[in-house]
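sorry for the late reply, my laptop died twice this morning and i had to redo everyting from scratch. anyway the thing you sent over, i finally got around to it. pasting the sequence first so we're on the same page, its 204 residues, then the predicted structure underneath. double check i copied it right bc i was rushing
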Amino acid sequence: MKRKHCVLILSILPFAFGNILLPFFDFRSAPGLNAAPCMVPKSPEDSPYYFGTSDLACVSTKGRLHLTKRSVKMESENNRTKRAAPQRHTMSPTHRWIYFRGNFFEWGTDAGSKTRLFGLLNDAKSYSVKSVLPFNGEKCDWMMEPVPAGYSSVSLECIVGCTVNYKTLTGDYSLLNNNCHHFANTISMVLCSNICPDWCQQIL
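ok and here's the structure:
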């Protein structure tokens, strides 16, 4: 088998796993967990934040692959969990981000990095902060949850700092242990706490 065929097969396998096998598992919220305290605004300074997702294959290949069908439906309620801070499941076959104060905060893209093996390698992963559209939003299908995950008075500068410093704090990208969902959940915890942690207050 030629080398280019091997590379193509290796690049498609994670997407096939995520889009064909994972949907058979039930990712419903665990019952009996309390709602997060930040789900209701407490002051005029509080701004809503939202979870959203993009086509994982499209984002990771700069629009060369599309493995989800375009849909106007918002993300299923079954993919939500209720904890101390709003969280989303970390094995969902999508690319996840946070929308807050007019900006899309993402990690696990190939923005600003040299892409190797269609962006699947750890050192090809980076962060993205964009307004108007999420990363590759002009090419890739994306959707934002219609209801805010919570409300926060944390500054925009704080969340930018969290996004920039995330890799320094947590290490390289890992499909199972440190992916875009872990990042989004971490940002949700910061937003829900209404406190800007030390690691977000200056570029590390």
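Residues 123 and 172 are 7 Å apart (CA to CA).
thats about all i looked at so far, will dig more tmrw
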